């Protein structure tokens, strides 16, 4: 049985999630990629243990993560049972529902039928009585928001989740959902969105709404699927995400963007960091609760955690980053 590092909490930051009592590790481990049925179990277990040993307590999943859909939850359930079962109360486990999961009219979007059924399936796959955070993964243009909110309220009151969150909602949708949930007595605790140096939609209206409503924020894709690393500066390596993902294909890696990445990489070197570490630190420079990192091996997680060793940016560095990104 795995024994966790005794010093795991020494260097990690833990940030309050909005106005709730919940704190999240500044870095969270996401299982969108590399935890599916095609992936090696021992490597997956090593990544989870490296994360926990480094103070990462939040593990982020969704019902459709794989491939095949659901296999990431199954694999995490195995790891939890085989390696981390003594530490369940030290861990925050989140999952989501909102994208297509099974055939027919009840396996997608935001109805009460889909959300409750999906979470029941997720709990069975992971061997859990409850998850800590359950998200609605995307807004549903056809289901009344009140129905989706009532489903989240029921899920929390039933004990199947401790907290409710949303993901990929616009500022206006977030404000409306926050008001409905607050009136029900189960306030939204967290909003998950894409955010990195190249994707800046969080800044401005959404950030202001979350601050006003007291909702925490967590960003996925802080490294822009690897574009904010030095991985693609000399071409596309075999086996990299760009060779096997529909979300980052070779045609999306443009020369102009690579020039910006190269310039950012030079600035990171001046700071004594890798570009990945600087990108994570940049994401955490403001009011974000946490940043979700992905990985294909344990060493990447260890290196990303080192971003916390150098979190400060001078005004000159921030201005230089903005100049590069123009």
Automatic annotation (TrEMBL):
Cross-referenced InterPro entries: K_chnl_volt-dep_bsu_KCNAB-rel, NAD(P)_OxRdtase_dom_sf, NADP_OxRdtase_dom
Q: Which UniProt keywords apply?
A: NADP, Oxidoreductase
Q: Name one GO molecular function term.
A: oxidoreductase activity
Quote the Pfam families the UniProt record gives.
Aldo_ket_red
Q: Which domain of life is it from?
A: Bacteria
- Residues of the NADP-dependent oxidoreductase domain: 27-325
GO process terms (BP): methylglyoxal catabolic process
| Coiled coil segments of this chain | none
| Protein family (similarity comment) | Belongs to the shaker potassium channel beta subunit family.
In Swiss-Prot or TrEMBL terms, this protein is called Aldo/keto reductase
Organism this protein belongs to: Candidatus Ornithomonoglobus intestinigallinarum
